[in-house]
Specification:
Elements lengths: L1 H31 L3 E17 L2 E16 L23 H29 L2 E2 L7 H5 L5 E3 L20 H4 L7 E5 L2 E2 L3 H10 L3 E9 L2 E14 L10 E5 L2 E3 L6 E2 L5 H35 L12 H13 L3 H19 L7 H20 L14 H24 L8
Antiparallel strand pairs: 1-2, 3-11, 4-10, 5-6, 5-7, 7-8, 8-9
Helix pairs in contact: 1-2, 1-7, 1-8, 2-6, 2-8, 2-9, 6-8, 6-10, 7-8, 7-10
Membrane topology: Multi-pass membrane protein
Main location: membrane
Subcellular location: Membrane
């Protein structure tokens, strides 16, 4: 029930975000005097609508987004009444059109930033000093957090019936103990401990540790598990030993901020997110084969793109496991990604319209400087083949990600 509730809540959050995106276009257009004739949530048949002033507002039957109709977005629009010609969008200065077309993405960024600020003040944001790389984790002191079990096979999942109990827990080790030696071999970092434990044969072993400043020794029955080499996580697995513990980092995973400091923390986090989003966009072509592999029965790469379906499923998992911070961080990441994606200079995206508007402006400026007549507006009809190609590629990619998210979804928690 919790999972279904989470899916519905996340899907509703996405729908609200997209509706506010269109509201951003509508409100800025109206503010500049452009004529907006329709604003609807959803697509397909109209379920309910009303008209106020010159704009019809309503809800349609398929809740997969929304739209607003601004009169005369391009010079080639043929549905502009003669009386509305002065208010056609394409006749307005380029800076006004830029604000209107970017208002949707700005709305997504605003939703992400406000949510981040609220999280920074209430729950906390990820600690920038927390180890973010494998090398960083291995350099941490070997302070342990007990795992409830040992997963023998090399899979990422929670404990299930039949899994052996944690050897460390059976030996009465506790959360916060710092391992200092295994079978007499000293260890100082988490990486040292992993190396030594895996190099020790399964079975009885002596573990030295420090608890509350006192050194003690425990006899542990190390479990036999299948794991790849530490230097090659995707390499072939082999039988190694496991202690049944996880790293307890020396730094907190989250940092909570005051109302003022939260602004700086939000800005820093957003900057990192911008870099990660840029890298994610660059990797999309490389991840297409991995998506196909996931659809055709292979293992799903956790670094592959997800669709709205996949994001909603992850939201469902988060709610099911009471991980509300994960739920809201997913909401933040998705809004930021949509905001950036919509600004890409490709038709029919908002960024494509903005790019054309500024191209026209720059071309007119150059022609004026060289004494040639203004070439006028770009003919959108000549760009339709490129637009159709973008729509086709985008549609195919969306279908690919949705299919992967249905048949082989990414999961964050064991269900």
């Amino acid at each position: 029930m919790g999972y279904l509730l989470g899916v519905v809540l996340f899907a509703l959050a996405i729908l609200i975000s997209v509706s506010l995106h269109e509201a951003g276009h509508m409100l800025t257009a109206k503010g500049f005097g452009m004529k907006v004739t329709r604003y609807f949530v959803g697509f397909g048949p109209t379920l309910w609508s009303f008209k106020r002033g010159e704009t019809e507002y309503g809800v349609k039957g398929i809740p997969l987004g929304g739209f607003c109709k601004i009169v005369g977005m391009t010079p080639q629009d043929d549905d502009v009444d003669p009386g509305d010609e002065p208010r056609a969008m394409w006749r307005y200065p380029v800076w006004k059109r830029t604000i209107v077309m970017s208002a949707g993405s700005i709305t997504h960024f605003a939703l992400a930033l406000v949510t981040l600020w609220i999280l920074a003040v209430s729950a906390g944001l990820p600690n920038p000093k927390f180890p973010s790389t494998e090398e960083g984790y291995k350099a941490e002191p070997a302070v342990i957090a007990l795992a409830p079990c040992v997963v023998v096979e090399n899979v990422s999942r929670g404990c299930q019936a039949g899994d052996p109990a944690s050897p460390a827990a059976r030996a009465q080790l506790k959360d916060g103990d710092r391992i200092t030696a295994v079978n007499g071999r000293p260890v100082s970092t988490w990486g040292d401990m992993l190396d030594v434990v895996r190099a020790t044969k399964p079975g009885t072993a002596t573990v030295e540790y420090v608890r509350d400043g006192r050194t003690a020794t425990a006899t542990v029955d190390l479990a036999a598990v299948q794991r790849p080499p530490l230097t090659d996580p995707k390499g072939a697995t082999s039988a190694v030993s496991a202690l049944g513990v996880a790293l307890r980092p020396s730094t907190p995973t989250l940092v909570q901020y005051g109302p003022v400091d939260a602004f700086g923390a939000t800005a820093d986090f957003t900057g990192n997110m911008a870099v990660q989003t840029a890298h994610a966009l660059q990797r999309i072509p490389q991840k297409v084969p991995a998506l196909w592999t996931a659809i055709t029965g292979g293992e799903r790469d956790a670094d592959t793109p997800i669709s709205v379906v996949g994001a909603s499923r992850l939201g469902g998992e988060a709610v099911e496991n009471s991980a509300w911070l994960v739920f809201f961080m997913l909401f933040v990441s998705l809004n930021f990604f949509i905001g950036v994606f919509n600004l890409l200079p490709l038709l029919p995206l908002d960024g494509g319209h903005i790019a054309i508007a500024w191209f026209e402006r720059a071309r007119s400026w150059v022609y004026a400087r060289i004494g040639r007549p203004d070439p006028g507006r770009v003919d959108y009809l000549k760009l339709m083949p490129i637009t159709y190609a973008v729509i086709l590629i985008g549609g195919a990619f969306t279908l690919l990600t949705v299919t992967a998210d249905v048949v082989n979804p990414i999961t964050l928690f064991s269900r």
